[in-house]
From TrEMBL:
AMP-dependent synthetase/ligase domain mapped to chain residues: 11-344
InterPro entries for this protein: AMP-bd_C, AMP-bd_C_sf, AMP-binding_CS, AMP-dep_synth/lig_dom, ANL_N_sf
Residue ranges constituting the AMP-binding enzyme C-terminal domain according to the UniProt record: 396-472
Biological source species: Streptomyces anandii
The family this protein is said to belong to: Belongs to the ATP-dependent AMP-binding enzyme family.
Top-level taxonomic group: Bacteria
Protein name, entry field: Acyl-CoA synthetase
Pfam families: AMP-binding, AMP-binding_C
Length: 481
């Protein structure tokens, strides 16, 4: 019996495991194709996977895991320098790719094996232990070269089982998603999650509201997306009754990888009667918290800690907050079986990431309500603004700005100020570039909704905000001064 994917060794009949566009594999077909991959890579330490949004990527990763080998998913949009660093650091012995995929020069020296989804071989005998590496996933590298987070098999299994508990996720669920497959969200949650439950996943290849409507009205029960996707859905809903009806019939709509603005939450709920729920995780921790399927879907929060996860907020000096009032900001630290083992080849960074009592320092700032709900207010490095003696999270100001009808997109940063320490700066993409809202108007709008000390002191207009592949705003890429 497969420890990670029991459905592969049971008799699933003709149940479809994976579908990418017109191409699909039943559980029997997946077991055969993944078995062939597993036998090809058996005995290796690490194997790279050219992670295009195709059937072959899912088969490759499952096959590698079944062989007890660690998979290193590669982002097909990585630049040469980043790719060169990842290959030198992880030293994979070969790369798995879809037939016909064009690989960049950085991979030229690596043995290539094309994945044949029609191949067949018996499943290899699983010998890997729970602490053995399942994946090496590279972080985005905002502070230097990307670091390879070594994720053990134990973390994959415990996170997926904790989400099954929180979301009442079963083998009857059919997931629709259009996420990249080189990140935790799209690959671990969005592919390995359904397979661990014995359910089905339909990958859109490229996200589009038409595909979402088609799949959710054609038997899919769950949707995973990032805020950019849900924003597009919110924009499309007023003119697309078929989309509204399809979303209304979904069992679960889940957003992650960045905060979903409250404005988009409300628009989707008003049009469909369904609440999007949010969860919170990182490459190094997999999933930490979620709004539960049987809990209150409170917009702007990421819910409560998942089963097995210990979570605390700490002051700057490391002192744990003892009471949660929904106002006091602290850094999130987590401990539990969901955590990564180490940063590959970086014992210094690994040691610095953990406290003496085994908590991981996330670098994320949050407040926690008395009933345990967590609300993230931003990253410690870029989103915590110290202004006039207050600690202010950029996230809540961004949410308030997005509620202004003249604002299409918003980001908030702090910059040095002789009087305040830091002043709050709002970066705005106006809804109508010909008549953008004025700085004073936006400052008053925020002051009325939040508090006077949280109003922006400067407003900068942009045509678009810089974002990464997952839709996260890259604040370090904003113009300076």
């Amino acid at each position: 019996m497969s420890l990670l994917f029991p459905a592969l060794t049971e008799d699933p009949g003709e149940r479809v495991a994976l579908r990418f566009g017109e191409r699909s594999l039943t559980y029997a077909g997946l077991a055969a194709a993944a078995g062939a991959v597993g036998r090809r890579v058996a005995g290796r330490e690490r194997v790279a996977v050219w992670a295009t949004p195709e059937l072959e990527t899912a088969v490759a990763v499952v096959g590698v895991l079944l062989a007890g080998v660690a998979a290193v998913p590669l982002n097909p949009r990585s630049g040469e320098k980043e790719l060169g660093h990842i290959l030198a650091d992880s030293a994979p012995s070969l790369v798995l790719a879809a037939p016909g995929a064009e690989l960049p020069p950085a991979l030229a020296g690596l043995e290539r094996v094309d994945v044949d989804v029609r191949a067949a071989a018996p499943l290899p005998e699983e010998r890997a232990g729970q602490e053995d590496p399942a994946l090496v996933v590279y972080t985005s590298g905002t502070t230097g070269p990307p670091k390879g987070a070594v994720i053990p098999r134990r973390a994959v299994a415990t996170t997926l089982d904790a989400l099954a508990d929180a979301w009442q996720w079963t083998g009857d669920d059919v997931l629709v998603q259009g996420l990249p497959l080189f990140h935790v969200h799209g690959l671990v949650l969005g592919i390995l999650g359904p397979l661990r439950r014995g359910g089905s996943v339909r990958h859109l290849g490229r996200f589009g509201t038409e595909g979402v409507a088609r799949e959710l009205s054609g038997g899919a029960t769950m949707l995973f997306g990032v805020p950019t996707m849900y924003h597009r859905i919110a924009e499309a809903l007023p003119g697309d009754p078929a989309l509204a009806k399809a979303l209304a019939g979904a069992r679960l709509l889940v957003s992650g990888s960045a905060a979903l603005p409250v404005h988009d939450h409300e628009r989707i709920a008003a049009a469909t009667g369904r609440r999007v729920i949010e969860r919170y995780g990182m490459t190094e921790t997999l999933m930490n918290t979620s709004v539960r399927a049987d809990g209150e879907a409170r917009a702007g929060t990421v819910g409560v800690p998942l089963p097995g996860v210990e979570l605390r907020l700490v002051e700057e000096d490391g002192t744990a907050l003892t009471a949660y009032d929904g106002e006091t900001v602290g850094e999130i630290q987590v401990r539990g079986p969901n955590l990564f083992t180490e940063y590959l080849n970086r014992p210094d960074a690994t040691a610095a990431a953990f406290t003496a009592d085994g908590y991981f320092r996330t670098g994320d700032m949050a407040v926690r309500d008395p009933d345990g709900y967590v609300r993230i207010v931003g990253r410690k490095a870029t989103d915590l603004i110290k202004s006039g003696g207050y600690k202010i999270g950029a996230g809540e100001i961004e949410n308030a700005l997005l509620e202004h009808p003249g604002v299409r997109e918003a980001a908030v940063t702090g910059e040095p100020d002789a009087d305040l320490g830091e002043r709050i700066v709002a970066w705005i993409v106006p809804a109508d570039p010909q008549s953008p809202p004025g700085a004073e108007e936006l400052a008053e709008h925020v002051a009325r909704r939040l508090a006077p000390h949280k109003r922006p002191r400067a407003v900068r207009l942009l045509d678009a905000l810089p974002r990464n592949d997952m839709g996260k705003i890259m604040k370090r890429a904003l113009p300076h001064g």
